[in-house]
From TrEMBL:
Alphabetical GO biological process terms: protein histidyl modification to diphthamide
Keywords: S-adenosyl-L-methionine
Protein name: Diphthine methyl ester synthase
Record-level Gene Ontology MF annotations: methyltransferase activity
Binding site for S-adenosyl-L-methionine: 103, 162, 187
Organism: Brassica carinata (Ethiopian mustard)
Entries under Gene3D superfamilies matching the protein: Methyltransferase, Cobalt-precorrin-4 Transmethylase, Domain 2 (3.30.950.10)
Keyword S-adenosyl-L-methionine: yes
InterPro entries listed in its UniProt record: 4pyrrol_Methylase_sf, 4pyrrole_Mease_sub2, Dphthn_synthase
Family annotation (NCBIfam families): dph5 (TIGR00522)
């Protein structure tokens, strides 16, 4: 029997009880620290992150059945500024649904020079998109597309290090969260749709500028 066991979003101690039991009864254990981020496609990474994050974002008490389609927000470059996620957010908000934004992760990305030169690859330093960068890019796309899907006053929830002891959760407008330092990765963002009183109560608990 072969078990493939994820260790969660934080650290090794985030392993599930079933995963731990499988590890204990296994004769041989192999730990892969590189291939997942370095060699798997972004599609596989996105699927894994969506499943893992959706299990944890429920801590802010936005109802999971009230989420629309998940979107991915990639790092912009000078020549590549994709905005296909905008239409998905637009559809979600028209239906009053929350939108989970998975923020870009760049690990083991070959440098442009090494790709051109060939031979041994050299890699860019790891990059993890922050809530701040995500909001800046989202607002840039809104300004370009101009459909008033969201604005600086749109309510959001920013998450950092979900599942870890020092996890951080903050709710507030895009304008407020754009200036907040959420600390070390991994980050994700939820654009809030229509809410009911229970959700509003929890959003108030995690409100920017309050002690919680």
């Amino acid at each position: 029997m072969l078990y493939i066991i994820g260790l969660g979003l934080g650290e090794e101690s985030d392993i599930t009880m079933r995963g731990l039991e499988a590890v204990k009864k296994s004769q041989k254990i192999y730990m892969d620290r590189k291939s997942f981020m370095g060699n798997q496609s972004h599609l596989l990474i996105e699927r894994w992150l969506k499943k893992a994050v959706m299990n944890d974002v429920g801590i802010c008490r936005l109802q999971l059945y009230h989420y629309g389609e998940t979107v991915s927000t990639p790092f912009f470059t000078e020549t590549w500024r994709p905005d296909s996620f905008y239409e998905k957010i637009k559809k979600n908000r028209a239906l009053g649904l929350h939108t989970l934004c998975l923020l870009d992760i760049r690990v083991k990305e070959p440098t442009f020079e090494s790709l051109c030169r060939g031979g041994k690859k050299q890699y860019e330093p790891p990059r993890y998109m922050t809530v701040n960068t995500a909001i800046q890019q989202l607002l840039e796309v809104e300004q370009k597309r101009g459909d008033s899907v969201y604005s600086e006053e749109t309510e959001c929830v920013g998450f950092a290090r979900l599942g870890a002891e020092d996890q951080k959760i903050l709710s507030g407008t895009m304008k407020q969260l754009e200036s907040v330092d959420c600390g070390a990765p991994l980050h994700c963002l939820v654009i809030v749709g229509k809410t009911h009183p229970v959700e509003e109560e929890m959003l108030e608990f995690y409100k920017y500028g309050t002690a919680n």
